[in-house]
C-alpha cells in the first residue's frame, strides 16, 4: 500500500491531467445536451482503460523497485544488473551512476595501493627497529641491577607497541594471515605469562594461573596478542596484589586483577577506539587502543569478550571462545 501511494504521488500530474480530459469530455457532451448514457459510457470506458494501464504500469514499477531493493545488498560491481532505463531522465541517471562507479573503482585502486605501501613500510620499519632493540637487550643481559631490569621492561614495552602498530594496520587488510587450528589453551597462556615474568617480579605482583586443560580452534598468534594485551593492561593498572587466570564454571577464560578498576560509566565504551575514560585522565600514557584491538581481533576469531569491573575492586576480562574440549 505504501509503495502504491508513492506511485500515485509520483504520477499525480499525469493522473490529474487524465481527470481534466475526462472533465472536458463530460462538459462537451453536456453542452450538446446528449443523453446521460452517452456521456457515462465513454467516461466509464476511458476510466477502465486508464485503470488497466495504471495497474499494469504499477506492477512493472513494483518489479523494478524489488530488483533495486535487492541490489542495495550488493556492491558497486553489481551496477550492471540495474533495470534498463525507460526514459531520457532514467538514461541520464544511469550514465551518472556509471561515471560515479568508475570514480569509486579508481579511488579504491589508489587507496589499496597506498594502504599496501604503508603496510610494506611499517613491516620494514618493524624489522629495522627490532635490530637495535635486540642489541640493547643483549647488552643488558650482562648486567643484573634494578636499573637494567627497568630498562629491560621498557624495551619489552617498546616491542609491544611496535607489534601493536602492525596489528592495527593489518586489521582492515583484505587478506589476513589468520590460520585456524586446534590449540592447547594452557600452552598459549603460559607463553604469554612468561613474557611478563620480569614485570611481575619488578612490581612484586603475584600470578595465579589455574590450568584449564582445554583445547580450542583458533589462531594462536592473534589469540596470544589478545591475552598479552590484557595482561599488559592488568599489570599497568595493578599496584598491589596480583592477577588470576582461570576458567569459570561456564567455560569462559577469565583474567582477573586487583587493580584500580574501571568506572561504571566508562564500561560501555571501553572497546571504542581512542576512548580512555576517567583512567585515561589519570594515567596520561593510556592510549585507548589496546582494548579496541582486542575487541576487533576477538570478533575476527569468533570470541566474545566482556568486562566486569568496579573502582578500587579490580577488573575481570572474560573470553568466551565457544566450544572447548577437555585435553585428555
Description of the structure:
- The protein is of the alpha+beta class.
- The protein has three domains: 2-73; 112-170; 182-326, Heat Shock Protein 90.
- It has ten helices and eight strands.
- The protein has helices spanning 2-10, 12-31, 36-71, 88-140, 146-170, 185-195, 197-202, 220-236, 277-282, 290-301; strands at residues 181-184, 206-209, 214-218, 242-247, 253-257, 304-309, 315-320, 325-326.
- The strands form two sheets. It has a five-stranded mixed β-sheet, with helices on one face.
- Helix 2 packs antiparallel against helix 3 (36-71), helix 6 crosses helix 8 and helix 8 runs antiparallel to helix 10.
- 14% of the residues are buried.
- The mean pLDDT is 80.
Distance, first to last CA: 62 Å
Could you say what the CATH architecture of the largest domain is? 2-Layer Sandwich
Broad CATH class of the largest domain: Alpha Beta
Q: Treating each run of at least 4 consecutive H or I residues as one helix, how many helices? A: 10
Mean pLDDT across the residues is 80
Beta percentage is: 5-15%
What's the story with the biggest beta sheet?
Answer: 5 strands, mixed
- Sheet with most strands: strand arrangement: 2-4-5-7-6
Oligomer: single chain
Principal-axis shape: elongated
What series of H and E elements makes up the topology?
A: HHHHHEHHEEHEEHHEEE
The CATH superfamily of the largest domain bears the name Histidine kinase-like ATPase, C-terminal domain
Amino acid at each position: 500500500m505504501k509503495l502504491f501511494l508513492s506511485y500515485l504521488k509520483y504520477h499525480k500530474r499525469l493522473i490529474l491531467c487524465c481527470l481534466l480530459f475526462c472533465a472536458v469530455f463530460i462538459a462537451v457532451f453536456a453542452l450538446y445536451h446528449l443523453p446521460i448514457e452517452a456521456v457515462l459510457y465513454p467516461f466509464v470506458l476511458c476510466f477502465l482503460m486508464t485503470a488497466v494501464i495504471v495497474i499494469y504500469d504499477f506492477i512493472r514499477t513494483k518489479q523494478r523497485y524489488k530488483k533495486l531493493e535487492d541490489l542495495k545488498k550488493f556492491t558497486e560491481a553489481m551496477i550492471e544488473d540495474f533495470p534498463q532505463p525507460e526514459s531520457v531522465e532514467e538514461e541520464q541517471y544511469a550514465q551518472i551512476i556509471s561515471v560515479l562507479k568508475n570514480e569509486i573503482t579508481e579511488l579504491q585502486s589508489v587507496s589499496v595501493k597506498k594502504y599496501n605501501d604503508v603496510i610494506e613500510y611499517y613491516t620494514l620499519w618493524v624489522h629495522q627497529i627490532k635490530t637495535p632493540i635486540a642489541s640493547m637487550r643483549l647488552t643488558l643481559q650482562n648486567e643484573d641491577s634494578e636499573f637494567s631490569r627497568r630498562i629491560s621492561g621498557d624495551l619489552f614495552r617498546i616491542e609491544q607497541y611496535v607489534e601493536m602498530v602492525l596489528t592495527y594496520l593489518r586489521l582492515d587488510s583484505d587478506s589476513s594471515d589468520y590460520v585456524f587450528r586446534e590449540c592447547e589453551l594452557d600452552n598459549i597462556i603460559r607463553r604469554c605469562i612468561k613474557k611478563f615474568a620480569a614485570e611481575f617480579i619488578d612490581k612484586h605482583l603475584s600470578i595465579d594461573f589455574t590450568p584449564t586443560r582445554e583445547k580450542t580452534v583458533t589462531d594462536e598468534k592473534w589469540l596470544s596478542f589478545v591475552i598479552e594485551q590484557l595482561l599488559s593492561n592488568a599489570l599497568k593498572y595493578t599496584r598491589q596484589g596480583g592477577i588470576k587466570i582461570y576458567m569459570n564454571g561456564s567455560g569462559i577464560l577469565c583474567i582477573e586483577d586487583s587493580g584500580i578498576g574501571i568506572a561504571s560509566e566508562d564500561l560501555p565504551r571501553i572497546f571504542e577506539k581512542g576512548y580512555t575514560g576517567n583512567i585515561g585522565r589519570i594515567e596520561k600514557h593510556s592510549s585507548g587502543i589496546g582494548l579496541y584491538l582486542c575487541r576487533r581481533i576477538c570478533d575476527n576469531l569468533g570470541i566474545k569478550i566482556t568486562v566486569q569491573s568496579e573502582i578500587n575492586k579490580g577488573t575481570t576480562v572474560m573470553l568466551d571462545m565457544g566450544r572447548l574440549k577437555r585435553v585428555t
